[in-house]
Design brief:
This is FAD-dependent monooxygenase. GO terms for molecular function: monooxygenase activity. With 494 residues, this protein is of the alpha+beta class. The protein is built from 12 helices and 28 strands. The strands form 8 sheets. It has a 6-stranded mixed β-sheet with strand order 8-2-1-12-21-20. The radius of gyration is 24 Å and the shape is globular. The chain binds flavin-adenine dinucleotide. Flavin-adenine dinucleotide (FAD) binds next to helix 1, strand 2, strand 9 and helix 7.
Length: 494
């Protein structure tokens, strides 16, 4: 097997596929190796968060996902009765999209195909290595051994990541101690309403319609909370647990998928070792609560993709960004650590709260998040809307005054009004994966970015005048986060 790839991605899950698209968009040659010969039919994830939709909108493909899913304006934290309200979030997508992971992967693989990504199914990576010039993998496809070389290797190969293990990167954390049950099943007499979520001293239950008579039933059963994750789950076992928690099994039958999942929580000690990177479940695993693993992983992929492309295509060095690839771990490891924390907290509230004290804690928190500020803080955390990177990546020239309040903030898809009266969308200017300098006030300031890697637009942002007071220009990264903002006073003085 040969390849002229500049990047090898191990794993064609949602994270590997999105990363490959982001690289191909910038003209980088990428080969994705996937051991499965066919896409997975079952869907672990059902929730796509608003920030992931924004990311897809940044590249002009969000509509494909919206067309296949159903927007839901609220979500949950630890299955508490008070829902998280996304509708107040400042975004074109103030909701979660109900979309099975199998559809997400199907749409990503189709997009990868359009961009010319070389996805090789049935190819299992068995060993990896690197030196100062590049990285390589060896493996087997159709019984035939192969070796592929490239400039960089990314492990998007899931929780048991071979790439992570071979690179010797520690996966620190907590072992599985509690488990829950999952069944995609038919229900003869489903509970009324769109979805059911309940919690009591016997445990917790969620019933979510998947289409037709198919439902996902998730049970946290106090009586079976210590059963190991590997123990097989039977339909009878799921039905009995459902009855214990809800007093009814809703006529459960015809299982399509029965499984257990655990509260195992681990975070890779580093996301990079030389020319090898980790993204998605290869870097972080946790209790699937609040619909986050795939979303955070896809956001890892976006963060890494444009940076690798910037380094390979020369934009980074031409723009004076010395350590762009190091910034991947600097920015995303703290996001993984926050994910670790919030899912562990949810695990305590969902799987360790059956006694009166635990029930009282749940009731207290549920009351507290009725307050709009706390509710919004959690909604921003889980959705990814709240992520703000700590530092500017671009060197700021001496004498340039920066408005620090903008550094690292994500931008929603603002409408921009141009001097000729036309209106365009901010995200449209980022669709090619390049930087954007948005001049909102005076002209005159020269961007330090390499011309091939930046578009410059002069426009007003209707409705945002107060927010942008004192700002002359926003230097926006390809992922829609502000790198830094130039103060008006500085421009006036140049
Ligand atoms: C019950 C449940 C519900 C969930 N719900 C949500 C949700 O609503 N929202 C959400 O955001 N997340 C959710 N998640 C988490 C989500 O499913 C994962 O975070 C997501 O699949 C991670 O994507 P990935 O691409 O990193 O890894 P994976 O999806 O695991 O993909 C890794 C790929 O790498 C391939 N691979 C592995 N090893 C090799 C090798 N050696 N060679 C070649 N290929 C290899 C695998 O075959 C696989 O296709 C849920 C998880 C569970 C268990």
């Amino acid at each position: 097997m040969t390849s002229n790839a500049e990047i090898i991605v191990s794993g064609a899950g949602p994270v590997g596929l999105l990363l490959a698209c982001e690289l191909a968009l910038a003209g980088v040659r990428v080969t994705v190796l996937e051991r499965r010969t066919e896409p997975v039919a079952q869907s672990r994830a059902l929730t796509m968060h608003g920030r992931t939709l924004e990311m897809l909108a940044l590249r002009g493909v969000a509509d494909r996902f919206l067309a296949r899913g159903m927007p839901i304006p609220s979500g949950h934290f630890a299955g508490l009765p008070t829902r998280l309200d996304f509708s107040a979030c400042d975004s074109t997508y103030p909701f979660t999209l109900f979309l099975p992971q199998s559809v997400t992967e199907q749409l990503l693989e189709a997009w990868a195909g359009e961009l010319g990504v070389d996805v090789r199914r049935g190819a299992t990576v068995e060993s990896t290595g690197q030196d100062q010039d590049g990285a390589w993998v060896t493996g087997t496809r159709d019984g035939t051994p192969f070796r592929l070389d490239a400039r960089y290797l990314v492990g998007a190969d899931g929780a048991r990541s071979l790439v992570r293990r071979q690179a010797g990167i520690a996966f620190d954390g907590l072992p599985p101690t509690k488990t829950a049950m999952l069944g995609d099943v038919l229900l003869r007499s489903p509970p009324p309403g769109r979805a059911l979520s309940l919690g009591n001293p016997a445990g917790g239950l969620m019933v979510v319609p998947l289409g037709g008579e198919l439902y996902r039933v998730i049970v946290v059963d106090a009586q079976e909370i210590d059963v190991p994750v590997e123990a097989p789950l039977t339909l009878e076992g799921l039905a009995a647990a459902t009855r214990r928690v809800a007093g009814d099994d809703y006529g459960i039958h015809a299982p399509q998928w029965l499984s257990r999942f655990s509260n195992q929580t681990c975070l890779a000690q580093s996301y990079r070792q030389g020319r090898i990177f980790l993204a998605g479940d290869a870097a972080h695993i946790h209790l699937p609560a609040g619909g986050q693993g795939m979303n955070v992983g896809m956001q890892d992929a976006m963060n890494l993709g444009w940076k690798l492309a910037g380094v390979l295509r020369g934009g980074a060095s031409a723009s004076g960004i010395a350590s762009l690839l190091d910034s991947y771990e600097a920015e995303r490891h703290p996001v993984g650590a926050a994910l670790y924390r919030n899912t562990l907290a949810q695990s305590a509230l969902m799987m360790n709260s059956f006694d009166p004290a635990g029930q009282a804690l749940r009731a207290t928190l549920s009351e507290l998040i009725k307050g709009p500020e706390l509710n919004a803080a959690l909604a921003h955390d889980l959705s990814g809307f709240g992520i703000r990177y700590a530092a500017a990546l671009l060197p700021v020239a001496q004498g340039v005054e920066v408005c620090a309040r903008w550094t690292g903030r994500r931008l929603p898809d603002w409408p921009l009004r141009h001097a000729d009266g036309t209106v365009s969308s901010l995200y449209r200017h980022l669709a090619g994966g390049r930087w954007l300098v948005l001049r909102v006030a005076q002209d005159g300031w020269q961007s330090p970015l390499d011309d091939d890697w930046v578009e410059t637009v002069t426009a007003a942002v209707p409705g945002r005048e107060a927010e942008l007071d004192g700002v002359a220009a926003l230097v926006v990264r390809p992922d829609g986060h502000v790198d830094h903002a130039i103060a008006s006073a500085m421009v006036a003085n140049t």
